[in-house]
Every structure is written in structure tokens, then in C-alpha cells.
Design brief:
Strands 1-2-3-4-5 form a five-stranded mixed β-sheet. The protein contains four helices and five strands. By secondary structure, it is an alpha/beta fold. α1 runs parallel beside α2 (about 60-75).
């Protein structure tokens, strides 16, 4: 049995980190969607959704993430997922969703401030 669904956010630099725990299903998806919409439209449109503590996610949770990504882009930001491991790729493949979602193995890798700078110069 999984624990209760929990969703909270905090600011890290100019990004929001939304931490999710428990099961994301038809019952919890509206709360998840509302929290993401609230953060994007009233706080920061650049966010990382930390999925390390998600115990299960149905296709409806994937739709919530894709919709939130589109909303973030409309507000000049982006949405990245972190910490899901292989299950997120498997769910995306199983549902046949063609909506892209950036995923990083760890929260630190998903946050721009923590990624190493690219060295060298780009051609002009």
C-alpha cells in the first residue's frame, strides 16, 4: 500500500521545484494539476517536478505533466521531470503519448543552476 498523495513546491534560484509523493491517479490528478497550474501562473513558470517519491502513476498523471509543460511554455518557462527512472519512459511508451517531456535522472541535473556550464565557444 502506498502512502498518501502529497504535492508541495519551493523556489530554488529562479526555478520552482514541485515535489510529488504517493500515487498519481484519476483521484489525485486534479489536485496535482491545480498545484502545477498555481505554481506556473502565480509563482515561477520554470519548474522541475521531482518524481522520486511517486509510488505509481497512471496515464492521467502523464497528461497532467504534458498540460503543465504546455502552460509553462505559454508563460515563458518550461517543465522538466526528475527522478522517475525507467518507469516514466515505460509509461510514456505504453500510453503512446507523443507529447515530449524532458526527464533528468536527478533533481540536481534538472536544475539549470546546478548543471555544469558548457565550455568553449559556439560558431557564429
Amino acid at each position: 500500500m502506498s502512502g498518501p498523495f502529497v504535492c508541495s513546491w519551493s523556489a530554488v534560484g529562479d526555478c520552482a521545484v514541485v515535489r510529488v509523493a504517493g500515487t498519481v491517479d484519476v483521484r489525485t490528478a486534479p489536485t496535482f494539476a491545480h498545484e502545477l497550474q498555481h505554481v506556473i501562473t502565480t509563482k515561477l513558470p520554470r519548474l522541475v517536478v521531482d518524481l522520486r517519491r511517486v509510488t505509481a502513476m497512471e496515464a492521467t498523471g502523464l497528461e497532467v505533466l504534458a498540460d503543465a509543460h504546455e502552460l509553462a511554455v505559454r508563460h515563458g518557462g518550461w517543465l522538466r521531470a526528475s527522478g522517475a527512472g525507467q518507469w516514466l519512459a515505460d509509461l510514456t511508451r505504453a500510453t503512446g503519448t507523443g507529447r515530449p517531456l524532458e526527464h533528468y535522472p536527478t533533481l540536481a541535473e534538472a536544475l539549470p543552476a546546478y548543471r555544469p556550464a558548457i565550455r568553449g565557444s559556439l560558431p557564429i
